[in-house]
Amino acid sequence: MKNKKSLKLSIICYVDISVLNAESIQIINFAKALHRLGHKISLFAPLIGKKREDDKIRIKYLPLIDLKYLRPLSFIFLTPFHLLHLLKKENPDAVICFDLYSAPTIIPVIRLLNIPIFLYLNSIILEDMKALNRNRITTFISDLAYRSNVKLSNSVGCISKPVMDYVVNKLKKPKNSVSVIKDAVDTDLFCPIDKKEAQIKCRLNVNCRYIGFVGSLCLWHGVDYLVEAAPLIINKNPDIRFLIVGDGEMKKTLQRRCNELGISDYFIWTGFIEYEIVPTFISAFDIAVAFFKKVRSNYGSPMKIFEYLSCAKPVLASNYPEYGQFVESLGAGISANPEDKEELSEKICGLLNNEENLIQMGKKGREAVLKMHTWEKRAEEMSRLINSMISNYGKN
User: Under a CB-based contact definition with an 8 Å cutoff, are residues 324 and 347 in contact?
Assistant: First the structure.
């Protein structure tokens, strides 16, 4: 459905959009969905590596010095002047900024042009920096930029309620200018494939059953919970295998723990794979898992859960609002306390013992994302907020 009022929107990010990861996928899909609603979209992104060609949206690259340490400095001090010129020429109805906590000069420059600014936040940056053990100077600068960006923006979209609560309660942004807009999924790319067919394509043993995870192997994704519960699951289900799709800083630690437990032969580590073939790997799963380790308050809106559901896979997830509680509300999975390895193993084994229940959960999940969790639905939410922001611009 096309939007009643077509807007000219400029999207600005500091993300390498030539590489498909959670950040770039989100930005590109929002841009395409807003385009499908009838808006005229320009995406401004730094030129890092290769250029991305796209016939649906106009991509305008922001020049910078593409060297490791000079890249962020040039984006902070040189790019804003170029962006100022481009936005004057573009003259958009509004600007959408994604995060930009590492670019404290961008939003102040946009303010000079008297253009309404919609800021979309994926995190509470202070928590993330501490969880990743970033140095104090980097943490201070990023947090300062985050706070400034929130203050200078006219409206703020947050990926989850904890981020919204932080922006409203800690940063004192008026509640009527802050909203939650969750992640979503491309239901055309992430669609069900026959399980055996997918396993053959992924060169997996079709006589085994698979518990799968997709995502970055970082601390808060809690893959270590699955490793600790694995011996108990294997003991009752010797045909089980654990398919870990993705890479990250925790990979070697997790592999070492598997060696210590004597279960390395039961784990398959794919490393990084191209985003376009992720749906095939998900389709090879019997059960998909998603955990959240509370090293930060922001549980987010896990894109992986929407991708699992879109591929009609039952989901077992941590007992948090956008994880287990969410899939249980859809009848598409169950929640568990993954810190309790006995409980986790019992719940996984219980699911494995009821194949028909797994199929029904998968169907309900697919139906739910088609109805409520597409990028088009999220773009409609964002479009309504931007229209309201423009209507109210200058009144306060």
Answer: no
CATH number at residue 84: 3.40.50.2000
Beta-sheet pairing, 333-336 with 94-98: unpaired
- The answer as to whether 210 is a domain residue is yes
| Cα 21 versus chain centre, distance | 8
Do 151 and 177 touch, CB atoms closer than 8 A? no
Is residue 79 located within the same domain as residue 171? yes
Spell out, as residue ranges, where the chain has pLDDT lower than 70: 1-4, 295-297, 394-396
Residue 259, judged by CB atoms within 10 A of its CB (0-12, 13-18, 19+), counts as exposed
Q: Is residue 15 located within the same domain as residue 36?
A: yes
pLDDT of residue 295: 67
Q: Looking at residue 5, what is its pLDDT?
A: 78
Q: Which domain holds residue 124?
A: 8-183+374-392
CA pair distance 34, 18, nearest whole angstrom:
20
pLDDT tens digit sequence for 89-120? 999 999 999 999 888 899 999 999 999 999 99
Q: Please answer whether residues 205 and 241 qualify as being in contact, where contact means their C-beta atoms are separated by less than 8 angstroms.
A: yes
Q: What's the number of CA atoms in the CB half-sphere (13 Å) around residue 309?
A: 34
Q: Are 324 and 316 in contact (CB under 8 A)?
A: yes
The phi, psi pair for 376, rounded to 5°, reads -65, -40
According to the model, what pLDDT value does residue 70 have? Answer: 86
Phi/psi-derived region of residue 38, left when phi > 0, alpha when psi is between -120 and 50, beta in every other case: left
